[in-house]
């Protein structure tokens, strides 16, 4: 055997035929070792890294390629697979019948050439042959080795009665019900975007992760350019498939999938945060599963990780390994111990869902506040943080009876008009879209230059988000969602005009003393006083009823 060293990206295209030929013959379904992926990565992301590809030649035939990224740590040459922070899976490009001999030959040559050496290989699927061969090599050489693994769930489309399987699971988390609600509000469809629309994908991804920690770097620097260029690849085994969920001509979710010979790997998912209440990410994922099944894919790969969403749909699991192995020198062994300790801690932390969510949400929120937060955002965050230990909530429920409405001595024209969800989407106000989801009729100010949210009415239920109360309304009663005392008299007069025989309910919090005083002047009567106190693990709720009917229709969760 003979080794050919490929050290520049300009040399690589001369070997494309051999590289593609080996993977085609082996029916490779790992997209991250395809020539198209590696070539683009080396051109864009790995341009400033020390990369070398060992091509193994035997009897005038190239039987394999070993792409390595080489780094120096403590004077030790660390050989790792290329794209460690971007490729989910890795491996060697070698003819199967020569894999053991080629691995032994290349690794022996590296060990002879470098006195201080350490191997760090990520992304090795346990079901794959490369992982077994590498482990066997290090065991036979009695090399100090550490192995780490992370779960990799997948859906075996080719071995499952998909129609039955899908129908049994599509109702999980109420996705089918949320989809129906969304379709009632406007047009909903899936599509494949054009090249000049991809900027929306990155924008949506940034919005989804604006208040959380994202470790993938999907939209950062050269990685963004790399993922955009991959979409342009044609006539290769590697293909990028972007699916978009569109509501009223606006992107609300997308999936970025990497495909290779019957395997679909879910790589990135983003969605509009204001539409998260509709579970649009789950909805699009289901649509993508249906599409891949109809196109006769064999495997729908959810990629590495312990996220609950992945286990909702998986039929089987694999494991993705990271293997560390060091040379015989004390310096290499010491570095091995340090890297192995770090990897062990990382593995333990990632396997804990509570720690992962704490890092993602708490640190992400703090980062958002430092970069973009205003004073009111900081106050809200501190209040929320303090409320986890101690909180005192005090809410009054007021009623303006329909049978004895006090008509305001004020001429009221058409001050407000119903707002459509398309207008609410443009405002990008938190919780505004959720009002439509909850069934409210949302109103806007007719005389404002732009669509401004004014208030919302519900004909069937009243709710207090602070106390997690959602209860049905009595007949001939409406519930008013209006946060402060501004224009409460005008809103009441407008309601009297459009619903003259109906009663109106509204809430006022502990600090909204102006609103309570104004409501009393307008003729509202307090019918319920609700308190909730929390101190550590102790919680207590009290409800005082001021209504004549004894409160039989009210139930506090």
UniProtKB/TrEMBL annotation:
This is BioF2-like acetyltransferase domain-containing protein. It comes from Lysinibacillus contaminans. SUPFAM superfamilies: Acyl-CoA N-acyltransferases (Nat). Residues 171-310 form the BioF2-like acetyltransferase domain. Pfam families: Acetyltransf_6 (PF13480).
């Amino acid at each position: 055997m003979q080794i050919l060293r490929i050290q520049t990206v300009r040399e690589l295209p001369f070997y494309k035929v051999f590289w593609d030929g080996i993977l085609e013959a082996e029916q490779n379904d790992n997209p991250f070792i395809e020539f198209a992926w590696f070539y683009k990565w080396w051109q864009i992301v790995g341009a400033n890294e020390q990369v070398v590809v060992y091509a193994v030649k035997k009897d005038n035939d190239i039987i394999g390629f070993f792409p390595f990224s080489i780094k120096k740590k403590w004077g030790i040459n660390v050989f790792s697979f290329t794209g460690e922070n971007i490729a989910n899976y890795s491996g060697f490009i070698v003819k199967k019948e020569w894999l053991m001999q080629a691995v032994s030959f290349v690794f022996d040559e590296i060990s002879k050439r470098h006195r201080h050496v350490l191997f760090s290989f990520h992304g090795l699927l346990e079901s794959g042959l490369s992982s077994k061969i590498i482990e066997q090599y290090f065991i036979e050489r009695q090399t100090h080795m550490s192995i780490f693994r992370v779960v990799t769930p997948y859906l075996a489309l080719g071995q499952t009665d998909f129609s039955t399987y899908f129908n049994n699971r599509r109702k999980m988390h109420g996705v089918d019900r949320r989809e129906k609600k969304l379709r009632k509000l406007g047009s909903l469809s899936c599509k494949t975007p054009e090249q000049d629309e991809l900027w929306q994908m990155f924008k949506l991804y940034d919005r989804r992760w604006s208040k959380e920690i994202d470790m993938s770097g999907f939209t950062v620097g050269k990685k963004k350019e790399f993922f955009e260029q991959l979409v342009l690849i044609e006539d290769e085994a590697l293909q990028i498939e972007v699916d978009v969920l569109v509501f009223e001509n606006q992107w609300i979710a997308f999936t970025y999938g990497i495909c290779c010979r019957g395997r679909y790997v879910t790589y990135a998912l983003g969605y509009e945060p204001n539409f998260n209440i509709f579970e649009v990410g789950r909805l699009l994922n289901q649509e993508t599963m249906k599409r891949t099944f109809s196109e006769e894919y064999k495997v729908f790969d959810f990629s590495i990780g312990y996220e609950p969403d992945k286990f909702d749909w998986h039929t089987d699991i694999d494991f993705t390994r990271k293997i560390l192995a060091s040379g015989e020198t004390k310096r290499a062994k010491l570095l091995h111990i340090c890297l192995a300790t770090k990897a062990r801690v990382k593995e333990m932390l990632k396997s804990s869902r509570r720690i992962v969510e704490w890092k993602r949400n708490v640190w992400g929120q703090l980062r958002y506040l430092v970069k973009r937060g205003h004073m009111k955002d900081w106050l809200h965050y501190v209040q929320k943080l303090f409320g986890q230990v101690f909180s005192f909530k005090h809410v009054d429920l007021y009623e303006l009876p329909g049978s004895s409405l006090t008509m305001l001595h004020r001429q009221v024209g058409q001050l407000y008009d119903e707002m459509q969800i398309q207008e609410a989407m443009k405002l990008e106000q938190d919780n505004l879209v959720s009002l439509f989801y909850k069934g409210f009729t949302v109103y806007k100010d007719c005389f404002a230059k732009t669509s401004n949210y004014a208030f919302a009415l519900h004909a069937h239920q009243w709710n207090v988000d602070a106390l997690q109360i959602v209860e049905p309304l009595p007949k001939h009663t409406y519930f008013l969602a209006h946060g402060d005392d501004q224009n409460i008299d005008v809103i009441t007069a407008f309601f009297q005009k459009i619903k003259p025989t109906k009663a109106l309910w509204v809430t006022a919090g502990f600090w909204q003393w102006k609103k309570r005083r104004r409501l009393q002047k307008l003729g509202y009567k307090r019918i319920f006083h609700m308190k909730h106190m929390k101190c550590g693990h102790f919680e207590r709720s009290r409800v005082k009823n001021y209504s004549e009917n004894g409160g039989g229709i009210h139930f506090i969760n």
